[in-house]
From TrEMBL:
It is found in: Cell membrane. Signal peptide: none annotated. The lineage of its organism: Bacteria, Bacillati, Actinomycetota, Actinomycetes, Kitasatosporales. This is Small multidrug resistance family-3 protein. Coiled coil: none annotated. InterPro entries: EmrE-like, UPF0060. Pfam families: UPF0060. SUPFAM superfamilies: Multidrug resistance efflux transporter EmrE (SSF103481).
Length: 111
């Protein structure tokens, strides 16, 4: 159950951080205005809280692993929100990052 909770929290964190950054991007770069920017800042702030809910107590481990989720999630967000089509190197890189997430977070450790 802890594994599923951890994965769900990583996915929620990615949604908030990537979505928040995208909202700020839309507000500034696409000239959609202050409401988009404010919504993005709120989502980015919420991301910071979600990361604290991970069952593992090590900040460095959580954020290092989340980096891999962020890479893969950013490519997926670009596909859905902006019509981006990753090439095979994007996909391979994302898979390597997710393997890193699995090793960092879920490898058996003698505790």
């Amino acid at each position: 159950m802890l594994l599923l909770r951890s994965i769900a929290l990583f996915l929620l964190a990615a949604l908030l951080e990537i979505g928040g950054a995208w909202l700020v991007w839309q507000g500034v770069r696409e000239h959609r205005g202050l409401p988009w920017i404010i919504a993005g800042i709120a989502a980015l702030g919420a991301y910071g809280f979600v990361a604290t809910l991970q069952p593992d107590a090590h900040f460095g481990r959580i954020l290092a692993a989340y980096g891999g989720v962020f890479v893969a999630g950013s490519l997926a967000w670009g596909m859905v929100a902006d019509g981006f089509r990753p090439d095979r190197y994007d996909v391979a890189g994302a898979l390597v990052c997710l393997l890193g997430v699995a090793l960092i977070m879920y490898a058996p450790r003698g505790r």
